[in-house]
Amino acid sequence: MDAVFSISLPRRAYTVAVVRDILGTLLSRAGLCRGCVDDFLLAASEASANAIEHGGSTAVYRIDAEIDPDWCEVRISHTGRAPDSQALAERFSSERPPPLPELDSESGRGILLMRRLMDEVYFEGEPRVTVLLRKRRTGCDEGTDDLRSGAYPGGADARLSVRV
Known about the structure:
By secondary structure, this protein is an alpha+beta fold. The protein has helices at residues 15-29, 34-54, 85-92, 110-117, 144-148, and strands spanning 3-10, 60-67, 71-78, 120-124, 129-136, 159-163.
């Protein structure tokens, strides 16, 4: 099934639940396994929350999804400030995992979660800041034993790129 979907939503906290509902239905009906749908929903929730928080002066943010036989791709974009590309590259491109934020910290886990849940994560810079989340459909239902053992989907092979 090839599918293309796009929606613009107000930059309000309640819309994260709307994104989860719509995207969950779309991905499930496209035939993704429950685990892959859950991975996308968590990663998209994190990216949506970032768009709401950092979206600048515009009142909306946008979610686009494309599904084909090999890949699922979700893009969350806004017109706010882009993350520091140099800091992202340094923090998330090394062989060693980045340090976790303090336990009482309210932020700092979103990009790490996205990277662990997706096969590829890209950040495109201003004027339209976009987080691109990609997952191979061919990996659906593979590695369920890894999940039970505590390994993260994507693991060390997950790609994160920054485009400015």
